[in-house]
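Notebook entry, structure prediction.
Reason for the run: the old model in the group folder had no record of what sequence produced it. Starting over properly, with the input documented here first.
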Amino acid sequence: MATVTREPLASRRLRIAPSPPAFDGSDDFAVADDGAMLDELEGSIVDGSLVAELPLGSQARLPIQLALVPGQPALRLDLVGGQVAADVTASGCSSGRVGGAITAEDLQDKFLPDFAQAMDAHIPAQCRPGAATGDYSMCDLVSKSYLGLFDDDPRDGTITTAEVRDRDLVAGLIQPDVDLMDESGNYLPDAEGEPDSLSFGVGFDCVVAEFAE
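New structure, fully documented this time:
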């Protein structure tokens, strides 16, 4: 008889909601149209420990959302070689980990533009004229920090993808460090011998939920 401490996975898809739900087990929310993976995780629960990962050869991505900029929509990351682990009980889970990697292409073409757009959208209109001359008196502290870090070529009170991409700090942080895909985009670690993705991981806790298919 299957129990929460020892069983094969009953549901092996990670889904995302259009907006963060209330994490008390009482909320209703819809699953985003593009919020389901294109493949399934392989794994099981053994002695209360959940371990699951994408199978070798899969082209699926594990979608997660991160709220990185105050007041702006969460940014989506689609992880290659996705893995999920957690300590599971009947009431939820703890010590959860989601890991994988972001492809170099997604970093350059999706994440950095979305991140730059979110930061720029956070900056209020009254802040921009003064910021273009180095006067941040009309800016909130978060806007001032964003502009101070990225608005420099030209300094005009806005933040562009090029300004974010060209910062030495950012360039150093997003260098690919793992080889996870073959030339066709399949999940096959060390297939080519050259880093093609940036490793990434976050922790989480969870509560019990029901999904109506």
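Summary: The chain has a mean pLDDT of 86.
The old model has been moved to the deprecated folder.
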